[in-house]
Design a protein that fits this description.
mainly beta, 10-stranded mixed sheet
């Protein structure tokens, strides 16, 4: 089934019955204002918050009104295509057939995908998080790359913080991507330690392309 996909304030939202839900592959649990949600004929019962974060607080953080968040517990039930340039998102409970030789394999931590990224011949394990508008690398070598912007980001329970973004050439699979990477504040580094990852790849990599995401099989395909 095809749903409208909106990009607002550098975040992705699925529209269902005129309600917007933040798409967050980096969140293990979904929540929303309405407890009942139906997608592709499947019914989901959503709590009204997650770890103290309510929909109202989420809307303030992301500067966009939404009715909830769709995390790994809901997204993990489907095969997904993000048609970001066309503003569409396909969800299906069927198993999609893709170009297997181009598929990238993902690890998993509590439903959150982990992807391997190569930078200057070093390999890093990083969360793949569509809920993150910026990407992060917790490595001192980041300062060797040029600063291209200074931005403000947020983390629930921590609040807002300012970061420098460095432009870095990365390799994922057999393709190269120029991504803007920042460094998390020291107090937030613990969020990476659970799975022993070194950073976060945010939704920048989904922009201006179509992406096939198969969370049930731990696979992703970036299509240019």
């Amino acid at each position: 089934m095809i749903y409208p996909l909106h990009t607002i304030s550098n975040h992705f939202f699925l529209e269902e019955s005129e309600h917007l839900f933040l798409i967050d592959t980096g969140a293990p649990c979904s929540f929303g204002i309405e407890s009942d949600l139906e997608l592709v004929g499947q019914e989901f019962n959503l709590p009204d918050s997650f770890m103290g974060l309510t929909t109202g607080q989420l809307s303030e953080y992301i500067s966009a009104d939404c009715c909830g968040l769709l995390g790994a517990d809901v997204l993990g039930k489907f095969d997904i295509i993000f048609h970001q340039p066309a503003g569409k998102m396909t969800l299906t409970s069927e198993i999609m057939q893709g170009t297997e030789e181009e598929v990238i394999f993902l690890e998993d931590c509590l439903g959150i995908p982990i992807i391997k990224v190569n930078i200057d011949r070093a390999e890093y394990r990083m969360y793949l998080d569509t809920g993150a508008q910026f990407s992060y690398l917790q490595n001192d070598s980041l300062v060797e790359y040029p600063v291209v912007d200074t931005v403000e980001d947020f983390f629930p329970g921590y609040g807002t913080f300012e970061i420098d973004l460095h432009e870095v050439t990365t390799s994922i699979g057999d393709k190269s991507y120029d991504l803007k990477l920042g460094k998390l504040p020291d107090n937030l580094v613990a969020i990476l330690s659970l799975a022993g990852v070194q950073g976060i790849i945010g939704n920048e990599i989904f922009m201006r392309r179509t992406t096939n995401y198969y969370p049930r099989r731990g696979k992703i395909l970036f299509r240019d």
